[in-house]
Specification:
By secondary structure, the protein is an alpha/beta fold. About 40% of the residues lie in helices and about 20% in strands.
Length: about 190
């Protein structure tokens, strides 16, 4: 038991926060941030994995699953890569969750030339942009609603993220533009 605990402690201690100043990049596809949150369907937890481009705050990929595994975060990553085709050297910043630290996810990062930055242990503010998105989404769309099926929740999330958050919601951090509009201005 002691050996396993020591091994787990080493595993959790590895990884570095490569964004110590928390600065926002000046171009798209330079830094992505990712996280997982919990949502309920008929009283049972579902897991929403999301990747945001930190430059524009645009949600570029998301996946909903009944299990919190590396497969759901890997699927979210693969969808983001397929959509954005980032150059090697992109940085993705996540928390220290095992779904981001395991070999499956790490191999996907390495294969695509993506640098992994990790929040400091116990410091959710290191990933404040994702935490803010989840807070806004839950406050504006999720709270007060009861979802009867995964399909219903998936439909609400699709509308919330694709039709509202990315396309119409104004963001104070980017001159009160919508996220899609802000990226278009930079192109």
């Amino acid at each position: 038991m002691t050996h396993r605990s020591a091994g787990l402690k080493r595993f959790l201690a590895t990884g570095e926060n490569l964004r110590p100043d928390g600065n926002v990049p000046t171009v798209v596809n330079k830094v992505w941030v990712a996280d997982v949150t919990y949502l309920k369907v008929r009283g049972v937890w579902r897991y929403l994995s999301v990747i945001m481009d930190l430059y524009s705050r645009r949600i570029i990929s998301w996946s909903l699953d009944k299990n919190r595994t590396m497969e759901v975060t890997k699927r979210t990553l693969q969808n983001a890569i397929k959509k954005r085709k980032p150059a090697k050297g992109l940085m993705i910043h996540t928390d220290r969750g095992v779904e981001y630290r395991g070999q499956v996810y790490q191999r996907a990062l390495k294969r695509n030339g993506i640098i992994h930055s990790l929040s400091r242990a116990g410091k959710c503010t290191d990933n404040a942009h994702m935490e803010s998105f989840f807070h806004s989404m839950k406050a504006e769309v999720i709270r007060g609603n009861t979802f009867k099926s995964n399909m219903e929740l998936r439909g609400v999330l699709g509308s919330c993220i694709n039709k509202y958050y990315n396309a119409r919601r104004m963001h104070s951090g980017i001159n009160y533009c919508s996220l899609i509009e802000y990226e278009a201005l930079a192109a």
